[in-house]
Amino acid sequence: MVMQFRMLLDCLDAAVCDSALSQALTSFANCNGFDYHAYLGLEGFSRDYFGTFPTDWHNYYLKNDLACLDPVVRQAKRSSGTFIWSATGWLHSRDTKLRNFASDAIAHGITHGLAISARTSFDRQLILSFASSQGDYWRPGTLDLSDGVPLLMELHHRLKELRQTVPQVPARPLSSRERLCLIWAAKGKTAIETGTLTQLSHRTVQSYLDTARSKLGAATVAQLVANAKDMKLI
């Protein structure tokens, strides 16, 4: 039985937490012949991810920074829309790195699927991908692919609504000192001023802020503050 995007939209609207969103996406995936799903939000150095791709593949993907090589991510960045992809097809590329990527994906049970891409304000890139571990190519059948982008935008806004009331927990939580320095930075204090207020050296303050930036995926202190506010950490 094919589950249309519009039916999934209703399920997303009724979801009350991230887990419920993931369950709705899992039901859609199963009804349409997919084994996995993944949502990815990219903004600068920050990445927002949740999904059901195999853990060993997810860890391998992150460890080797494969997002810069992933054809799905690259195509998604070029244009918004819904498209079908096949790792088997990538095996015929002249690019050795791409062929190796395809071989690794297939070895981890990622063979083909469907992806949706869209951009929001401040150049934030959204990607929703569904993947199968069987066969070489997925056919949409009666699924209306034109509803893909509206679905992805609804998922993005629903996540934003849910997270406005629930603080996000970073994969690497901030220490009390890192959070203290971050709060003073959010109030416009320099490292020297924060050092005076906290009785720490300005180099120590800067070290705490650098570590916090790494944990929250921020390139600058300004982005660190923005990310922390978005995650309801300050």
UniProtKB/TrEMBL annotation:
Sorted UniProt keywords: DNA-binding, Transcription, Transcription regulation
Stored CDD domains: LuxR_C_like
Stored InterPro entries: Sig_transdc_resp-reg_C-effctor, TF_LuxR_autoind-bd_dom, TF_LuxR_autoind-bd_dom_sf, Tscrpt_reg_LuxR_C, WH-like_DNA-bd_sf
Domain spans labelled HTH luxR-type: 167-232
Any one GO biological process: regulation of DNA-templated transcription
One example GO MF annotation: DNA binding
Pfam families recorded: Autoind_bind (PF03472), GerE (PF00196)
UniProt-listed PROSITE patterns: HTH_LUXR_2 (PS50043)
Gene3D superfamilies in UniProt: Transcription factor LuxR-like, autoinducer-binding domain, Winged helix-like DNA-binding domain superfamily/Winged helix DNA-binding domain
Name assigned to this protein: Rcorf83
Organism: Agrobacterium albertimagni AOL15
